[in-house]
Amino acid sequence: MTDISSASQPSATSAAGGTPPAAPRRGRVRSQSRWWSAWMFLAPALLLFIYFKFVPMGEGIRMSFQDVSPFLGNSWVGWDNYTTVLTNARFHQAVWNTLVLGAGQSIGAVVIGFILALLLEGPSRTLWFVRTAVFLPVVTASAVVGEIWRIIYFPSPDGFMNKLIGLVGIDPIRYLEDTSVALYAVMTVGIWSSAPYYMVIFLAGLAGVDRSLYEAAAIDGARLRHRIINVTIPALRPAIMIVSILAAVRALRIFTDVWVLTGGGPAGSTQVWMTQIYTQGFERNNLGVASAASILLLIASVLLTVVAVYFTRNKEGA
Amino acid sequence: MSQSFSPPAARKRRQQKSVEGTLDTAFGWAIGDPKSMIVRAVFCALLLFVFAGPIMTIIVGAFDLNPDPTALTLWPHNPSLENFRVATGRGIWGYFANSLFIAGFGLLLQIIVAVMAGYALARRKFYGQTVVLGIFLATMMLPEEVVAVPLAVVLGDLPLLGISIRGTIFAIILPVAASAFSILVMAAFMRDIPEEIIEAARIDGASEFRILLQVILPMSLPALGVVAIFGFNGIWDQYLLPLVAANRTDDYTITVILRSLRADIEVGTGALLAGAFLALIPSLIVYLLLQKSLVRGMTSGAIKG
C-alpha cells in the first residue's frame, strides 16, 4: 500500500498540469463493448458541474446584460451594467484595494512562509510538533480567524495588540476603524492565516535540495546569506513560482477575511471586489451589476492564470 | 544505543558530522551546538506564540468566564461553562448541527462522485475523454465566489426541475458535492493500480461497480485521505455559499452565525468564543487525524483551484 502511495505522487502532478490521462492497456473485448458505462460513472460529476457551475455562469453572463427585477421581469440593457461597474467610484476603490491587498498579502505570505520553512526545517520530533502547531491557522475556518483577530485588534488601549505594541512604546491604534490602517490590518491577518500553507510547500522543496551544494558552498566559504540566495532560492524556484500564482489568483477573490473583519469599512477603505459584488447583489439587489462585476472577476482570474501558466511553462522549457 | 557500540573512529566521524549538521538544512542549523539550539528554541517559542497562541486563546477563552474582549488569556481564570450556556440560549447547537450535517453529507457525496469520475477517467477509454478532463479543469477556474450571485438565483429556481432548494441544506451540499480537485486526485491515484488486478476480477465475472467497490476502493485509501481532508476543510470553511443560500438566519451554518453572535451586544465575548470553539474543533480533529494526507495532497503538486 505504501509503495502505491509513493508511486502515485508524480502522476498527481501530471493530472493537475492538464496532461491527458495515459491510455489504459487494451482491455478485453467485453470491457471495450461497454463504453457507455464510463459515462455512467461520470454522470454525477458532470450533472453537478453543469447545474451548479456552468448554468450559473451562463445565467451570470445573461444577467450581466439585463436589468434584473424579480417582479417586473428582466429587460435587456446591453453593456449598461458593465459601464456602471467600470465608471463607479466604489468599484474603482475596490479594484485598488484588491490589488494592494492581493499583492501585499501574496508577497507577505510567500516571504513569511519561506522564512518559516527555513526556521522549522529539520527531522526532530520537537520541530514536527512546532510545524503542526504553526499550521493551525490554515485549517481554522476563515470566519473563526476573523473573529479571533477582531478580539486581538480590540481598539481600546488595553486591547491585546495595543498592549503588545505599548511594550515598545507605540501609541494605541484603532486597527479596524482607522481608514489608513484597516487595509494593512486585514493584510496581516491574511498573511498570518496563509503563510504556514506555503511553509509546507517550501519544506517539501527544501527536502529536495541537493545537500552537496551546501557542502560546496561551505567549502567556498560562502556566508549563510549567500548560501540561501545562491543555492536554496534557485533550487526552490519552481515551488516559489507555483506558490506565487496560487496566492495571486486566490487574492483576487478574497471575501471572507474582509467581510468578517471589517465588512468593507471603515468608509470603504477595505472594500474589495468581492465585498462590492456582495453588497451590490445581495444588499442592494442590483443583480445585473453584481453579475457584470462577477464576469469581470472571472475574466481577470482566467487571464492571470493563463499568463502565469504560460510564463512558468516557458521557464521550464528554457 | 547504537552509539555506545560504535568504534571510536565512527563516533568521531559522527561528532564531526553533527557540527557539520549545518549542511543538513538550508539555514545551517548545527545539531550539537548549544548556541544554535538556544536560538532555535527561542524562534520556536516565538512562532508558537504568534501562530498557535491565538487559536489557544479561543479554546481557553471558551471555558473562561471573561466578560470583556481585553482579557485574552492562555490560562483560564474562572473556569466555567457559562459561555456555552449563554450560547445555547442563542441556538448555537442548531447551527453547529447544520454545519456538521452539511460537512458530513457533503463530504460523503464528494467522495462518491470523485471515486466514480476518477475511476472513469483513469481506467476507462472512451470517446471525449479529453473534453471531460477539460471540463473538470475549467471548473477550477469557476470558484464559488465568481458564480455566487447567479448561483443564488439558480438555487432559487433550478432549471428544468423548476423547484427552489434555497434555505435547505441541499443548497449548500449539492454545489460542493463535485470537486475537480478531488476527482483529479482519485484519477491520478487509480491510474497506478496494476491492470492485471482489475483484469483478474473482470475474468472472475465481477461487475463494474463491484470491481470499483471491492478491488479499487480498498487500494485507494491514501487518495481517499487526501480527498477527505481537502473536502472537509473546503466545505467547513464555506462562508459565502451558506450566506447566499439561506432564506432565514436559521439556515445559517456555525461559521456564518459567529458574526451575528458578535453583533449581539447582550451575549458578550464569552459566548462568541464558545461559538468560535465549536466552529474550530471539528476542523482541528480532522486535521490532526489526517495531517499526513493533507501534506501529501499539498506537496504532490496537485493544484487547488
Counting copies of identical and different chains, the oligomeric state is: heterodimer
Beta-strand percentage range of chain B: under 5%
Overall outline of chain A: globular
Q: Give a short account of the largest sheet of chain A.
A: 2 strands, antiparallel
Query: What is the terminal separation of chain B in angstroms?
Result: 48 Å
Q: Average pLDDT of chain A, to the nearest integer?
A: 84
End-to-end gap of chain A: 37 Å
How would the global form of chain B be characterised? flat
* Low-confidence parts of chain B: 1-18
**What is the count of β-strands of chain A?**
2
Order of helices and strands of chain A: HHHEEHHHHHHHHHHHHH
The CATH topology of the domain at 87-299 in chain B, please?
MetI-like fold
**Most extensive chain contact?**
A-B, 118 and 116 residues
CATH architecture of the domain at 91-274 in chain A: Orthogonal Bundle
Per CATH, which architecture of the domain at 87-299 in chain B? Answer: Orthogonal Bundle
Sheet with the most strands: spatial strand order of chain A: 1-2
Q: Strand tally of chain B, please?
A: 0
Radius of gyration of chain B: 25 Å
Descriptive report:
The complex is a heterodimer of chains A (318) and B (305). With 318 residues, chain A is an all-alpha fold. Chain A has 16 helices and 2 strands. Chain A has a domain at 91-274: MetI-like fold (Orthogonal Bundle). Chain A has a two-stranded antiparallel ribbon. The relative contact order of chain A is 0.11. With 305 residues, chain B is mainly alpha-helical. Chain B has a domain at 87-299: MetI-like fold. Chain B has helices at residues 2-5, 8-19, 34-62, 82-89, 92-123, 129-139, 144-156, 170-177, 180-190, 195-203, 208-219, 221-236, 240-245, 254-263, 268-289, 291-299. In chain B, helix 4 packs across helix 15, helix 5 (92-123) crosses helix 9 (180-190) and helix 14 runs antiparallel to helix 15 (268-289). Mean pLDDT of chain B is 85; it is low at 1-18.
